[in-house]
Design brief:
- There is one protein chain.
- By secondary structure, the chain is α/β, with parallel strands linked by helices.
- It has three helices and four strands, in the order E-H-E-H-E-H-E.
- The protein has a four-stranded mixed β-sheet, with helices on one face.
- The two termini are about 20 Å apart.
Length: about 80
């Protein structure tokens, strides 16, 4: 699993036209912790190029910037699947 830390990195992902997942995760939320474990367990089954973890507590407004760009309301935990 990779870490997503900037809007520029997200823009590069969009431009790459690959299949990937972004998992929005809050380290202070027990529900998010459980969801994170499930994502880790499912990575091999997903047959996807990459999985990116977005820590919603340490990345400032990035969660909202991404939500604005893709027109999907921000939630946490949240799994965003990009199939190019």
């Amino acid at each position: 699993m990779h870490t997503l830390t900037s809007l520029e990195q997200f823009d590069q992902l969009i431009a790459a036209k690959a299949d990937y997942i972004i998992f929005k995760h809050s380290t202070r939320c027990s529900i998010s912790d459980g969801a994170c474990r499930e994502v880790y367990q499912a990575i091999d089954e997903l047959q996807i190029d990459a999985v990116y973890l977005l820590d919603v507590l340490t990345t400032g407004d990035l969660k909202y910037d991404i939500a604005d760009k893709i027109k999907v309301k921000h939630q946490s935990p949240q799994v965003l699947i990009f199939k190019q």
